[in-house]
Amino acid sequence: SGNCAPLNEAMAVLQHHDAVTGTARQLVAEDYARQLSEGWGPSEVLLSNALARLSGSKKTFTFCRDLNISICPLSQKSASFQVILYNPLGRKVDHMVRLPVSKSSFHVKDPSGQTVPNSVVVVPSAEPQEHYPELVFSASVPALGFSIYSVTKISHQKPSIPLPNSISRKFRSR
Amino acid sequence: FRVLAIENEYIRATFNPDTGFLTEIRNKDKNLLLPVNQSFFWYGASSGDLESWQTSGAYIFRPEGRKPYPVSHYAQIRLVKTPLVQELHQNFSAWCSQVVRLYQGQRHLELEWTVGPIPVGEGWGKEVISRFDTPLKTNGLFYTDSNGREILQRKRDYRPTWELDLWEPVAGNYYPVNTRIYIKDRNMQLTVLTDRSQGGSSLGNGSLELMVHRRLVKDDGRGLQEPLKENGSGLVARGRHLVLLDRVGEAAAGHRLLAEKEVLAPQVVLAPDGGALYHPQ
User: A79, A160, A173, B241: which sits with the fewest CB atoms below 10 Å from its CB?
Assistant: First the structure.
């Protein structure tokens, strides 16, 4: 069962100025992180339950906590998956979705089944031979509502990925 | 490449091909052009001096000098252009990089910075800033939000209710920035929205800076008894600055809506294909 009370309580504790400004001792900072982390799990269950009820479909919902560092095992490994966006604002929002994927081409459909333009952007890494592709597409989400986009990998096509390496070499030579 | 730029239907950002730094932002929609030099710098943390024993620490920001050091004089760059997004990847050093990004249909420039682990092996604490230098005639005025709602006018080296004798010209002009900071002249306004609370200031006319990360080697003697120095090699921080260039009279509508969208961004949840019908009972 889902529960947002632990996250509420962790957030309440983190109102303390130590947590906001970083004036806590290292051990205390780690405890703040622990409380947040333990509160997040049951909140994800709560959100999953709400989404299942709203969409009428029970799924294994996945939350990619490491999206900001381009890590999301589901989008990186699955041949097809769904992207559900919930908009907490009281107006329609256009949001650019950005997900780490495996090197390929993709077919993205909006909630009405229409094809959505997408790009695969290769993100350079510190390692010379490693590049991380990210799928980018624009999603529209209604006010205080959600949209479900479906993503399918197209394996038989050559990826139309721009090659940053070829460009960067020219700059390096300057 | 004589001209290095990324652009969409509303914004064009131009970079110096030799240094890789941002040099100019153009709002194509409103025909506004502003030379903007953006780069990263760091203040050396004070470990006390003849004036005061006070060191820079978790509570106290006290740089040892007025002028910050550039992280680098040039950035290694990579350009990525697709129909939906154009990006310039800038690598300033082993511990400081940034992606300047423009999505199709977006009216702001997105700067995604990654800073850390800050090296302190040589015994110097560092406080890293992102600084925007423009020719805007700001007369010492800049604007920050105090609590995410009210924007307050700040004046350099000045307090509205007492006569200020400022001994710390950098720290004494730093203010909290919870969601945004901006500078303006009679025509144009440059607004930077943050994705988290940061310290910010304008230490010169037309200049605007935000502190993005700090790592210090000494305790500031305010009760913590620990330097602000993470275990191991230190933390990597990644965040975003959203930059808007607009006419003064129209800027508020833009940054208010964008800040709402940033703070209450859509929640993204993934699910494998398939699934069973859900029955509430």
Answer: A173
